[in-house]
Amino acid sequence: MRVRSIALCTAVLCGAAAARTFAARTPVVGTVPGEVRVVANDNRAPAGTLRGGVLTLRLVARAGTWRPDGDSAPGAMVPAFAEEGHEPRIPGPLIRVPAGTEVAVTVRNALAADTLAVHGLGAHPGGDAGMTLAPGAARTVRFRLDAPGTYYYWGTTMGRRLDFRTREDAQLSGAIVVDARGARPAPDRILVIGMWSDTAGRVLARRHRLLAVVNGRSWPHTERLAYTVGDTVRWRVINASADAHPMHLHGFYFRVDSRGDGVGDTVYADAERPLANTEGMHPGSTMSLTWVPEREGNWLFHCHIPEHFSPRGPLGLMREQSAGHMAQHGGEDPHVNHALGEMNGLVVGVQIRPRPAAGAQLVRAASEGARRHLRLLVRRSVGSSAAAPLYAFALQQGATEPPADSGLRNGPPIVLARGEPVSITVVNTLEVPTAVHWHGIELESYYDGVAGFSGAGARLAPVIAPGDSFEARFTPPRAGTFIYHTHVDEENQQLAGLAGPLIVLEPGARYDTATDVTVLVTSPRDSALERRAVLLNGSASPAPLTLRTGVTYRLRFINMTTRRPNMRVELRRDTVVARWRPLAKDGAELPVSLQVARPARSPLAIGETLDVELTPDAPGELRVEARTAPGALLGVLPVRVVPAGKAVSP
Questions:
Q1: Residues contacting residue 554 through CB under 8 Å, at least 6 positions apart
Q2: pTM for the model
């Protein structure tokens, strides 16, 4: 049996480091006679009784056995919300009503020894002041839901804020959806993100164990969502966890229709809805999105923080137990099927079926003769060791391999043209398996880079074994800034340096590094730097960038760190934030209404890219800064601005 997240969960609940005692914390391995089972809630059926414009609902918080890895897997006792007379659910019962509905909710605390605080059961927008219930107590609240949108309610037995609620009470959450009055709701799915760790605190806290779930289940036990090519897919995503989650959709773009914070929800006009393939979600945030699948195959929607979808975790747990895992699998390496053998947590699988009339035949974009051929070598890097491996990508475009690695921990830019078919043969010279994901590229599923999962039917992408290679074929349909990176053992291989910029230009355009500047932000391998620094273009002390007054530059920012989801990038002159004009996000051009000059400060979640335009108007010293959302400085790229005609010394 491979290392799975619930084994980590029981350690969370029962570890000596826990801050308090929960009445029923003993791990549950098998079925216990008379146990109360917690059901994974798919959020399809609303709770309560809706009659005459009034929803009546009776909720109860009670303890039950939660098994996020499936009903036959080990479980643990947690508090969860239930509808009176029904099993407890994670997430809690869905409240879904048309706008203008009056809601009467009675909440009862059936936890034997824990005081329960409940929030979110109030008018929206506006929220509520919350209620506190002693063990055995109950209270009824009445409120109206008038504003269409996506909201949630949540509880705590530890008296914590939602963004610090990480332990056994962290699954006390439920969705609230308000549909437009008088309109038939469009078919959609509601995905509630939960998280559970052994460290109470924010994202940067050092955690020993971690579990992330979607609708109460951890991958590969999360629900597989199935659609047909051409369907309109609508999701509402609620981050009811205490951590940030940059949510990435493989192979497609989605349009962000609304964003909210649980209290209010902002719906965007059609002309202001940005395209994205990765969207950062702060604790307590919501979003609704729409997308249309254009190609069949298997795809992933997952958090892009490796810690949140990898069983390895910050302490190398999978390395510690790999021998036992491989013995259980007859010596099979978990990398062979990366999706099922090496991923867990905050992942949703999406299967796109072909249209019945189209059959299963995939359309090839171009003939072999018109395809450009590249070789991408995966090699050991300068300074690598068994304890702290460093890897490098090297791009080979002719018959001769590029020279030995320079020691910078970032891949070289791969520059392609929109509409030009390309073949990239990835050659693995390492002693460990790997694979490459073409992040943001719209391509055939088989080439997407998730070993054992990408593809359709029996044609699934293999892992790239040591000494082997894999040919990825695609034709970029749009110009923009994208990423190529490892999709095997991400916590280790990304830190080792396996990430690089993938730049697609318009046909006939030239990539001029004098005016087209890429800034790739990655995490350092050095643990002494990891919590307080990032690498900019592979260096903790990058060389200064020289710009000229009156010249227009395109800056392409890429966040491929492993634990910096709340990062932002800024351009400063002394203490003053400069100005730039945003152009694109995730490789997609922004709506015209958003392409306006503004202060040079923008959030950049893991897996996101941002293109901006800058025209310096005065000589002087500037700084590109990478910062945490609260403002702590992580890294600096010095910028010298010189007069347009001035010669610049090396």
A1: 515, 516, 517, 583, 611, 612, 613, 614
A2: 0.90
